[in-house]
Amino acid sequence: MRTAETLLRVLPMALCVAALVIMLKDSQTNDYGSLSYSDLGAFRYLVHASGVCAGYSLLSAVVAAVPRPSTMSRAWAFFLLDQLLTYIILAAGAISTEVVYLAYKGDTSITWSRTCGSFGGFCRKATTSIAITFVVTLCYAALSLISSYRLFSKYDAPVAYSNKGIEVTTFTS
């Protein structure tokens, strides 16, 4: 199980690096001008999110690979960080998808023209990077399920009672 989890933690790192490199090299110049990933805030966010996720994937794979007894704090850390990174990379993919959709279709109500007709290579690379990002999201969703199962199957939820007989959740270490 440890080997499978470690490999599942390494896979998003490789995919994030691939998405990051594709997006970093995504620029095109033609008669209409030039377009680069850095011109669009959503793509800059995707690059940063991919970098953070790749770093976390490497670090978490190293920690998961080292045979140590599981502690509650370690289980909570994996659970919370896996959840956080899942939502970060999902948000990056979602907002970038919206920008690419507008680049392909345009929106006449806000005078956003179809730019993919003129910058087709740029749009294809961006679409590839976004598709890889959604595969990363699936990997992180699986990791989130694994870490939540580990946490909640091994440790009971901390429950205490207040002096009024009301059940109150407390966290102790």
TrEMBL record:
GO cellular component terms listed in the entry, alphabetical order: plasma membrane
Bilayer topology: Multi-pass membrane protein
Ribonucleoprotein among keywords: no
Species: Sesamum radiatum
Residue stretches making up the Casparian strip membrane protein domain: 2-138
Presence of keyword Cell membrane: yes
Assembly information from the UniProt record: Homodimer and heterodimers.
Full protein name: CASP-like protein
Location(s), subcellular: Cell membrane
Principal location class: membrane
Bilayer-spanning residue ranges: 7-25, 45-66, 78-104, 130-152
